[in-house]
Design brief:
The protein is α/β, with parallel strands linked by helices. It folds into 2 domains: 213 residues, Medium-chain alcohol dehydrogenases, catalytic domain (Quinone Oxidoreductase, Chain A, domain 1, Alpha-Beta Complex); 130 residues, Rossmann fold (3-Layer(aba) Sandwich). It is built from 10 helices and 17 strands. Strands 3, 4, 5, 8, 9, 16 and 17 form a 7-stranded mixed beta sheet that branches. Strands 12-11-10-13-14-15 form a 6-stranded parallel beta sheet, with helices on one face. A two-stranded antiparallel ribbon has the order 1-2. Helix 5 links the parallel strand 10 and strand 11. The longest helix is centred in the C-terminal third of the chain and has 14 residues. The two termini are 25 Å apart.
Length: 352
């Protein structure tokens, strides 16, 4: 029999999240049932709950930075057992047969991946509900092992903020001697600093806020450049192999492109939408420079990131909240009033 569980859902774009009961499916042969311990709070949760991007199906239970313990597994599962500490990120399935899926890049599935929430199960077409809940049932191919010794609370945001910034670092082969810059210091930006530094790069933060210098250095930045200061920007022209731009709102990319080195790339991981103002191509042409985009990471890549974080003791800087505070957390997130990621202690669901 399917299991009735408690979670928090939005019933419409204008409704606060509130308690909501729904069912989780019985185990299929390849499924893993997980009791959720912690769930990170992502800007995507807020945007989906409020239908900012359009297309949200209600009710919606957000949450795709999930840490929990396995309670049972299907008959064909061999990689996991009851008691294992595991994670679930932004995807719970994909077509598994297209070219990106065969390359381990399920996030670029040509049939679109099945999202952890506000998606549709590929087998029975039922809606997917996310991690703001007691339990989740996921195919073992989309379950991740959490390394021993890694703080499970701080590990939760690695499942989205971490992999979103790790994937471009990995793809553009950042390592010892690489020169990396990060635009913006928020949930994504602080993970980009930590991961780039962990990989051995020389790391710079671009920011408009002089007051962030001490925090940026603590997180791994070797240099802080105030992006509104023309002299500081001119001083770093032709410097960076990779710029990770984490800013989620419209902003001008033109000041950053000249700071790329020959063959350098500026990769967008925060902005969904049009580039405004128009991008001037002259600096691109004169240095064979590129502007690119990147989306989370595949399952194998995410596991590699988690293993790396386990080896280097890297987790997210977090503020733990109860689920009852989620609506306040959303408002604070809109004001950037968190350092640097909210994580819900899901035991708070028992508090009503």
């Amino acid at each position: 029999m399917p299991t009735t569980v408690l979670g928090y859902a939005a019933q419409s774009p204008k409704d606060d999240l509130a308690p909501y009961r729904f069912t989780r499916r019985d185990l299929r042969p390849d499924d893993v049932a997980i009791d959720i311990l912690y769930c990170g709070v992502c800007h995507s949760d807020l945007h989906t709950a409020r239908n900012d991007w359009g297309g949200t199906t209600y009710p919606v239970v957000p949450g795709h930075e999930i840490i929990g313990r396995v309670v049972s597994v299907g008959a064909e599962v061999t990689r996991f057992k009851a008691g294992d500490l595991v994670g679930v990120g932004c995807m719970v399935d994909s077509c598994r047969r297209c070219a990106p899926c065969h390359q381990g890049l399920e996030q670029y599935c040509e049939e679109f991946p099945t999202l952890t929430y506000d998606g549709r199960d590929r087998q029975d077409q039922t809606p997917t509900f996310g991690g703001y809940s007691q339990t989740i049932v996921v195919s073992d191919g989309f379950v991740l092992s959490i390394p021993a010794g890694l703080d499970p609370k701080g590990a939760a945001p690695l499942l989205c903020a971490g992999i979103t910034t790790w994937s471009p670092l990995h793809h553009w082969q950042v390592g010892e001697g690489s020169r990396v810059a990060v635009v913006g210091l928020g949930g994504l930006g602080h993970m980009a600093l930590k991961l780039a530094k962990g990989l051995g790069a020389e790391v710079t933060l671009f920011t408009r806020s002089p007051g962030k210098e001490d925090d940026a250095r603590r997180l791994g930045a070797d240099l802080i450049v105030i992006s509104t200061d023309e002299a500081q920007m001119a001083a770093v022209e032709n410097q960076f192999d990779l710029i990770i731009d984490t800013v989620p709102t419209e902003h001008d990319l033109n000041p950053y492109v000249p700071t790329l080195a020959l063959d350098g790339t500026l990769v967008l991981v925060g902005l969904l939408g049009n580039l405004v103002p128009t991008l001037n191509t002259v600096p691109l042409i004169m240095g064979r420079k590129s502007v690119a985009g990147s989306l989370i990471g595949g399952i194998a890549e995410t596991q590699a990131m988690l293993d790396f974080c386990g080896e280097h003791g890297i987790t997210s800087d977090i503020e733990v909240i109860g689920i009852q505070d989620i609506n306040t957390a959303y408002e604070r997130m809109l004001k950037s009033d968190v350092k640097y990621r909210f994580v819900i202690d899901m035991a708070s669901l028992r508090d009503g």
